[in-house]
Amino acid sequence: MRILIGCEESQAVTIAFRKLGHEAFSCDLEPCSGGHPEWHLQEDVFSVLDGSWDAGIFFPPCTYLTVSANRWLKDGITAKSGILTGAARRKAQDEAVKFVKRLSTSVPISAIENPIGVLSTKWRKPDQIIQPWQFGHGETKATCLWLNNLPKLKPTNIVEGREDRIFRLPPTADRAKLRSKTYQGIADAMADQWSKAIEEYYDI
Which of 44, 90, 105, 154 maximizes the CB count within 10 A of its CB? Predict the structure, then answer.
């Protein structure tokens, strides 16, 4: 099967699907950091959505979708260089929501992954909220999934010793990438459980 993993540069999910024998490709404007450039499409995700994919799993940027950044939506606020505020940020948020909605209908089978944010109110409630500790990682990071013709993920390894380590990462040049990378246990669950569902959908 051909699986597109959109807005993913880490290739965590791409590699998990590849290990199961599927023709999976990551796609992102950034170069891949997963070590397999031959499986990476460095371009706009919509430029490769040509109807040839059996399913798409998408990790759209959450910069303008998180609730933690709502303080920048107000007018008359001054922020450090590079941060949009007021009307400009509200417009960017609206565009980000439109981007997600368009992705969700781009292939017959799809999943959208994002943190808890404005999608729940500006689009629809997620089908599922998962945590890393349900998949072998002793950490907390609520992650929402919006599913189209895919089942909810079943926990594979519930562990104790849960902490919010990712949220407390110090400011660094690669902090955003580290916070957005999919946990290996979740990537493996997506590949294993969803590949079976996709095969059943197409009666393969």
Answer: 90
